[in-house]
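Please fill in the sequence for the structure shown.

STRUCTURE ENCODING:
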């Protein structure tokens, strides 16, 4: 993969995806010791960066695939993104989601017009469930992260960030399956090669850190984190390759660290960010990386929070 794919995706998405706002906070800068620029993908269509990659991938499908329809699997945001992109492009979409996915995400995928098929994550494997549906119905699989066109679309968030903010020393994103991190790394290393690219994971879902260090796919069979968007068991082949080549560092944060970060975003900045979206900011907020005095960009990946569950979690 290369930056030209990200650039092409940006042209395709112009006027379709929202150019999301950049936000800063003097209080955040004081607490973190650096100058922080937040790319607010919680204001993206359907509430997350995932719309970028889903629309780019669906638009670039063959006409035959579009006419037959597509299927995907998702813990929530990618499913919503595919559902919305499918509706905009006239492509029927089936989304395989865990039965314990946040209700807000299940309802949104249905609301955008997708057929939602649930499975029991304790007894079933989503890839197997999805593959069976694809084969039986003749549908095309659009993966949530391990696809070049999805990755290219996700990279457009970082492209907007770099076009708007000059002189960044580091860019951080959360990492689940690695699509956002991969697209960000491709973009940053092309446009500002001296800047660090840092991926952030919860301690209980650190397959990316493990794969980054070992050079192979590492599986965390039962990811344990409140950040439901960061529970894929492993990186994909494409995302692992990009992360190994272009990402400078993978770090983890505790549940308490990103809970405190989320509380700050909600209470002080009035930003409704889902737990997964706050993970990328957590190591900056807690000064874990030695970035004091630097200009730092952070992508807040989404805002599809289960409000009642998050309020209870923040108060626990």
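FILLED IN BY: designer on duty
SEQUENCE:
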């Amino acid at each position: 993969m290369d930056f030209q794919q990200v650039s092409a995706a940006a042209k395709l998405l112009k006027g379709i995806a929202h150019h999301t706002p950049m936000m800063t906070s003097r209080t955040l800068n004081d607490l973190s010791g650096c100058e922080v620029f937040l790319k607010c993908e919680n204001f993206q269509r359907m509430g997350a960066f995932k719309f970028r990659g889903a629309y780019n991938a669906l638009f670039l499908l063959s006409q035959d695939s579009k006419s037959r329809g597509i299927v995907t699997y998702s813990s929530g945001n990618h499913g919503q993104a595919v559902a919305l992109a499918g509706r905009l492009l006239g492509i029927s979409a089936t989304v395989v989601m865990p039965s314990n996915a946040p209700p807000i995400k299940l309802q949104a995928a249905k609301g955008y017009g997708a057929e939602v098929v649930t499975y029991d994550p304790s007894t079933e494997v989503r890839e197997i469930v999805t593959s069976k549906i694809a084969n039986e119905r003749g549908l095309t699989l659009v993966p949530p992260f391990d696809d070049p066109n999805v990755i290219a679309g996700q990279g457009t968030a970082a492209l907007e960030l770099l076009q708007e903010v000059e002189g960044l020393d580091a860019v951080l994103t959360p990492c689940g399956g690695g699509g956002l991190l991969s697209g960000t790394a491709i973009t940053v290393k092309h446009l500002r090669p001296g800047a660090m690219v840092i991926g952030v994971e919860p301690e209980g879902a650190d397959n990316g850190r493990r794969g980054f260090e070992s050079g192979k796919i590492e599986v965390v069979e039962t990811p344990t984190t409140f950040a439901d968007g960061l529970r894929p068991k492993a990186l994909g082949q494409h995302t692992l390759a990009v992360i190994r080549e272009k990402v400078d560092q993978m770090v983890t944060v505790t549940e308490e660290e990103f809970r405190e970060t989320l509380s700050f975003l909600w209470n002080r900045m009035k930003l409704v960010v889902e737990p997964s979206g706050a993970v990328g900011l957590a190591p900056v907020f807690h000064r874990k990386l030695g970035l004091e005095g630097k200009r730092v960009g952070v992508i807040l990946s989404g805002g599809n929070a289960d409000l009642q569950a998050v309020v209870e979690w923040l108060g626990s």
